[in-house]
Each structure stands twice: as C-alpha cells, then as structure tokens.
Amino acid sequence: LFSAATMLLAALLYRGWRRREADVAALAVQERKFRTLLESSPDGLVIVDAAGVIALVNRNTEQMFGYAPGELLGQPVQVLLPAHGPGFPRATGPVAPAGTPTAAQRDRWAITKHGLEFPVGISVSPITTDQGGLMAAAIRDMTQQHASARHIEFLAHHDALTGLANRAVMASRF
Questions:
Q1: Phi, psi (rounded to 5 degrees) for 133
Q2: CA–centroid distance for 55 within its chain
Q3: CA atoms of 64 and 162, how far apart (whole Å)
Q4: Terminus-to-terminus CA distance in the chain, angstroms?
C-alpha cells in the first residue's frame, strides 16, 4: 500500500511539474512575442509607472535619446522631456484610467542624454493593469518634419532659384 501511494504521489508530482514546465515555456513564448512587437516599432516606446518612473523602453528610445541599453530603466520620465516645454505636466502627470479621453497626440521637445533638445511627437495612452496604472508613450523624432516645414515656409516667401524675397514679401513691405 505504501509503495502504491508513493507511486501515485510521484506520478502527480511529475504531472504537476510537466504542467508547470509547459506554462513557463508558454510564458517565454509570449514574452518573446511582446519583445519582438516592442522592438519592431519604428517609434521609441516608453512605459512609465504611476509614479512617473520609466519601467520599459525599446531600443529605438535608447538610440533616439543616446542612452545605453537599460540605462533609462528606473529613471524619472522627466529625464526625457525638458520641464519648460508646453503642457509638460499633462504629458507626465498622474495616470488616468484606460478609456478616458487623455490619449492624444502631442508635439513636444525632448532632451537627449547630452542635453540636446529636439522636436518629438508623443502619443500618450493610459494602461490599467492588476499592478496599477501605467502610461505608454510612442515617441517619434520630428526633426526632419520641422526642417521640411521651415523650408516650405522659406520657399513660400522667397524665390527658389535666387533665395531673394518674392512678390508677397515685397508687397507686404510697401
């Protein structure tokens, strides 16, 4: 009887161990999928906890801001955004529950590790989890778009060939 009970217990333990092993393997597959999705984004992705501390970033964020891998984790989100920018508290303020109308596209200025400021587009969305609220931000470098807009503005008021002021500028002066 004792050996039968031992065999039954061993079989149950083995089955439980195999199930746990399968669960761990499935979790690893899900994490790889999530990491692949995170890293395949053309934008910088930042996830911030309710206290404003960076919990997760992708490689594009680290490259865009000039940080080494893992260096941003645990840092306050303020290291990425200069405090003098418009609407700064709204971009990094308290986390709102999912479904609230706080998710929006916002044009901001960001700051690199070395202190250089550059224009970015930030799309912020709240995330509600069992561990509390998070904020996800997709960050796109807008340097080229701003340069293009300045060039178009210049061309609207200057001759493309000579660079001299055009009729519109001349008419407004006289």
A1: -80, 145
A2: 10
A3: 36
A4: 110
pLDDT tens figures, 152-170:
988 888 888 888 888 877 7
Q: Which two tokens stand for residue 135?
A: 């904020």
Torsion sign, CA atoms 83, 72, 109, 136: negative
Assigned token pair, 126: 């709240």
pLDDT interval class at 53 (50, 70, 90): very high
Instruction: Report percent pLDDT > 90 for the chain.
Output: 35
Give dist(CA 78, CA 52) in Å, integer.
8
Instruction: Say how far apart CA 106 and CA 87 lie, in whole Å.
Output: 9
Structure tokens at 10: 């061993």
Phi, psi of 150 (to 5 degrees): -65, -40
User: Does residue 45 have a pLDDT over 70?
Assistant: yes
Mean pLDDT of 78-104: 54
Question: Could you give the C-alpha distances from 167 to 21, 103, 155, 173, in angstroms and in order?
Answer: 76, 43, 12, 10
**Which residues are CB-neighbours of 169 under 8 A, at least 6 positions away?**
157, 158
Name the strand (E) or helix (H) holding 13.
helix 2-40
Q: 155-161: long-range contacts at Cβ-Cβ below 8 A with a sequence spacing of 24 or more?
A: none
Q: How far apart are CA 119 and CA 133, in angstroms?
A: 27
Rounded Cα distance between 84 and 45, Å, is: 22
